[in-house]
Amino acid sequence: MPFKWRLKKTKRYEISTKNAFIVGVYLLDNSFLECTLTADSTGKECLDSIGQRIELTETHYFGLRYVTKKLHFHWVDLDRPLKKQLDKQAQSSCHPPCLYFGVQFYVASAHRIVDEVAR
């Protein structure tokens, strides 16, 4: 792995490279995941990483949201770098930056969804 980890007695870790950052993601069942991304990683890369970790293949029905400085939820633009979006618009009180995994597109007929986890 290209990142160097420094473990401390507090069982927390820091990334020693300035090109990487950690983002926390709350899933639909309120469980929490941490993703390590590079500064130029897009929202799609983060979403794909989460999908892979929870064994979800049909990620195109889902998206990521964050809380803005005005305390509103805003969907992450999956094509733009995630760090730029969070630095510019997200509430800064949460460290690491927090995202919320959610259903972005509703499908009227659930039998059309092939993936059992997505259903």
UniProtKB/TrEMBL annotation:
Molecular function as annotated in GO: protein tyrosine phosphatase activity
PROSITE patterns per UniProt: FERM_3 (PS50057)
UniProt domain FERM: residue ranges: 21-119
Name of the protein: FERM domain-containing protein
Domain of life: Eukaryota
Entry-linked InterPro entries: FERM_domain, FERM_N, Ubiquitin-like_domsf
SUPFAM superfamilies: Ubiquitin-like
Annotated Pfam families: FERM_N
